[in-house]
């Protein structure tokens, strides 16, 4: 009996990660054109996670199909994490385009919205305290991007784990 060659997950990670990034950008553009790109509601966040989770499941299904019907839990976790990270990188590139090219005053508007919410929820907050907080935030703005990648990796790991538990099928030992 001829053994099937091992299918490499890298191709699936890149292809479906790029597809995840594309779908996420399209979703973000839909929000932008509707004027909802400043909203950070639970619904929008859940939809983003559902897009990620669905793409990981599709990737795992396609990988298992190409791999002779077999998928290990380790492969599923690796694929889920990889797809999410590639999608996250595409999302960061889109965000940089949005905040620097498409809408250069995006961060100013985000800060205005945050300021209004902060003063509404904490009437004792002074302008000086706000300014100090903004100065501190500006110093550490660069950390936003690695944190997004880490969060995406964790969500991808969880999605890969769940998908792996659904789709796993070990190769029989001969």
Top keywords for this entry?
single chain; mainly alpha; 174 residues; 6 helices
The radius of gyration is: 20 Å
Number of distinct helices: 6
Helix content: over 70%
Overall geometric form: elongated
Q: Which regions contain 5 or more consecutive residues with pLDDT less than 50?
A: none
Strand tally is 0
Average pLDDT number: 91
Beta-strand level of the residues, as a percent range? under 5%
Order of helices and strands: HHHHHH
Q: Largest sheet, described in full?
A: none
Amino-to-carboxy terminus distance: 11 Å
Give the helices and strands, then pairings.
Elements: H1 9-33, H2 42-66, H3 73-102, H4 106-121, H5 127-139, H6 144-167
Helix pairs in contact: 1-2, 1-3, 2-3, 2-6, 3-6
Keywords: Membrane, Transmembrane, Transmembrane helix
Protein name: DUF4199 domain-containing protein
Transmembrane segments: 12-32, 44-63, 75-97, 143-167
Word description of this protein:
The protein has a domain of 118 residues. It is an all-alpha fold and 174 residues long. Helices cover 76% and strands 0% of the residues.
Compact summary:
This is DUF4199 domain-containing protein. By secondary structure, this protein is mainly α.
């Amino acid at each position: 009996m001829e053994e099937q060659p091992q299918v490499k997950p890298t191709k699936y990670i890149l292809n479906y990660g790029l597809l995840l990034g594309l779908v996420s950008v399209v979703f973000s553009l839909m929000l932008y054109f509707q004027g909802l790109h400043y909203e950070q509601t639970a619904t929008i966040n859940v939809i983003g996670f559902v897009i990620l989770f669905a793409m990981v499941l599709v990737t795992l299904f396609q990988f298992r199909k190409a791999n002779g019907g077999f998928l290990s839990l380790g492969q599923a976790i690796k694929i889920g994490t990889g797809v999410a990270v590639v999608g996250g990188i595409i999302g960061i590139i889109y965000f940089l385009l949005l905040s620097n090219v498409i809408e250069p005053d995006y961060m100013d508007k985000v800060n205005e919205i945050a300021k209004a919410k902060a003063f509404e929820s904490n009437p004792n907050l002074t302008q000086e305290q706000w300014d100090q907080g903004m100065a501190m935030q500006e110093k550490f703005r660069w950390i936003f991007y690695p944190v997004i990648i880490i969060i995406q990796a964790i969500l991808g790991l969880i999605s890969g784990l769940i998908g792996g538990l659904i789709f796993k099928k070990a190769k029989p030992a001969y």
